[in-house]
Write a structure and sequence with these properties.
Layout: H1 2-25, E1 34-39, H2 46-53, H3 66-74, E2 79-87, E3 91-98, E4 101-105, E5 112-115, E6 120-122, E7 135-137, H4 143-158, E8 164-169, E9 174-179, E10 184-189, H5 192-213, E11 217-221, E12 229-232, E13 247-249
Parallel strand pairs: 1-3, 4-7, 7-8, 10-11
Antiparallel strand pairs: 2-3, 4-5, 5-6, 8-9, 9-10, 11-12, 12-13
C-alpha cells in the first residue's frame, strides 16, 4: 500500500508541475520579442529578413517550432542553411549560411545558379558579386558531377591562360566545353578522371601545334583513343576561296 501511495503521489506531483509549466508557458513574458540573425547576410538585409519571416512564425519561446523556423528562413533566396536556437526568455537566434554562387546553371539565359557544393538554387542574378561566372549544364541531379568536372578541366586550361566559359554534359553522356575565345571542345564520354586525363594530354601538346602554324584554336575533338583532332583558324589545305579550315590530328 505504501508503494502504491507513493506512486499516486508522484503522479499527482508531476501533473501539478505539468499544469504549472503549461500556465507559465502561456504568460506574455515568453512571447517572442526579437530574432537575432547572424552568419552570412551578404545578400540578406537583416531588417527585411526579420520583417518577412517573423509573421510566418507561430508560438512563443516554449512552443515555437524550430524545424519550421529553419524551413522558413531557408525558403528565403540566397539562404542555403539556417540553424535556429531559443534564447531565454523571449528571443530566437538564427545563424545563416548563404549560397556561394560559382556558376550559372542550365541553358544560356536560365536564372538558376550553382553553389560551391554543386547545389542548384534560384536567386536574383542582379545581386551577384561576379557576373563572369561559367555556364554549366547537364541532366537534372548531376550538377555536382558537372561542377567537379569543370574544376578539373578549368584548372588545366588555366595553365595556357585559357578560360572555360561553358561546360555541358549532354543527355547521352558526352562532355562539351567552350572556351572564352569561342573555341569548341568535344571531350567525349567518361568519368571526371577520364575527362581530366584526356584534357591533360591535349593541353600538354596544344601549344606546339598552334605555334607551328601561328594560329589560334577554333575547335578540337578529343574523342580519340590515341590523340585528338583540332581546327586552327586560318589554316587550310584547300583551294583559295574555300572556307573550311584544315583539321590537324595529333
Amino acid at each position: 500500500m505504501k508503494a502504491v501511495t507513493m506512486v499516486f503521489g508522484l503522479v499527482f506531483v508531476l501533473m501539478v508541475l505539468a499544469l504549472a509549466l503549461a500556465w507559465l508557458s502561456r504568460l506574455p513574458r515568453f512571447n517572442l520579442s526579437a530574432i537575432a540573425v547572424q552568419g552570412d547576410v551578404t545578400h540578406s538585409n537583416t531588417v527585411t529578413l526579420r520583417a518577412n519571416v517573423a509573421p510566418r512564425l507561430t508560438g512563443n519561446f516554449f512552443t515555437v517550432n524550430l524545424v519550421q523556423t529553419r524551413a522558413v528562413f531557408e525558403s528565403v533566396p540566397w539562404v542555403r542553411r539556417a540553424v535556429a536556437q531559443r534564447q531565454f526568455p523571449d528571443r530566437l537566434k538564427v545563424v545563416l549560411q548563404e549560397h556561394q554562387a560559382v556558376a550559372f546553371w542550365g541553358p544560356e539565359g536560365d536564372t538558376r545558379l550553382v553553389n560551391s557544393f554543386g547545389e542548384v538554387f534560384e536567386a536574383n542574378q542582379a545581386e551577384l558579386e561576379a557576373s563572369d561566372l561559367p555556364q554549366l549544364n547537364g541532366p537534372a541531379g548531376l550538377a555536382p558531377l558537372v561542377l567537379q568536372t569543370y574544376r578539373l578541366v578549368s584548372a588545366l586550361f588555366d595553365k595556357l591562360d585559357m578560360q572555360v566559359e561553358r561546360l555541358e554534359l549532354t543527355g547521352q553522356g558526352s562532355w562539351r566545353a567552350r572556351l572564352e575565345s569561342g573555341a569548341a571542345i568535344e571531350l567525349g564520354h567518361g568519368s571526371p578522371p577520364e575527362i581530366e586525363s584526356r584534357t591533360q594530354r591535349f593541353v600538354a601538346t596544344l601549344s606546339q601545334a598552334s605555334s607551328r602554324y601561328g594560329r589560334n584554336l577554333e575547335s578540337a575533338d578529343l574523342r580519340y583513343s590515341n590523340g585528338y583532332a583540332l581546327k586552327l583558324r586560318g589554316v587550310t589545305t584547300l583551294n583559295p576561296g574555300d572556307k573550311d579550315d584544315k583539321k590537324v590530328k595529333r
